[in-house]
Design brief:
By secondary structure, this protein is mostly helical. It is 69% helix and 0% strand. It has a domain of 113 residues. It is rod-shaped and about 140 Å long.
């Protein structure tokens, strides 16, 4: 039997029934676009970082609200997460600063209660100079605020007019 002649190669661009069509390769720009989308999804869906930052904000908020035990508990819980050393130091510094502010606030509140009680008792005894002196001492140490101005106005409203020294007529 004679050997059949080899089949001639098809011209470029002409398809034959036996060979499947060739796919074009995926272009580089599509690979880059796909990677950018994956990166954006990872940034949005990365819950660990957001969770740590929310816990940091909660701890600082508790410290500012003068709740040191709860804030310290949040800091301890934060240490068990993937928080960085810088984040932990930031929270610890905020807790320390807030503790000093809270201590000063408690001292001022106690001093105000004491001063107000002393001024009220002096007013009850009609000792207006003593009441003014006690309120002046508080304002010098702690500063004047709306409540102390209201108390000063109350003292001035209840005290009689002082006769002037030059009115002897």
């Amino acid at each position: 039997m004679p050997n059949p002649a080899p089949a001639p190669k098809p011209a470029p661009g002409v398809r034959t029934a036996s060979a499947p069509p060739q796919r074009k390769p995926v272009r580089l720009r599509w690979w880059l676009l796909g990677l950018a989308v994956l990166w954006a999804v990872w940034l949005v869906a990365n819950p660990a970082k957001r969770r740590v930052e929310a816990q940091m904000d909660k701890a600082i908020g508790l410290a500012v609200a003068c709740k040191p035990r709860e804030a310290q508990s949040e800091l301890i819980a934060l240490r068990k997460t993937r928080a960085t050393l810088e984040q932990l130091q930031h929270v610890q510094q905020a807790l320390n600063d807030a503790a000093a502010d809270c201590t000063r606030k408690r001292q001022r509140d106690k001093a105000w209660r004491d001063a107000r009680a002393a001024v009220e008792s002096a007013l009850a005894a009609s000792s207006f100079d003593k009441a003014r002196q006690r309120l002046r001492a508080f304002n010098k140490r702690w500063g004047e605020d709306q409540a102390s101005r209201a108390l000063r106005d109350k003292i001035e409203a209840r005290s009689p007019e002082h006769p002037r020294a030059d009115e002897v007529r």
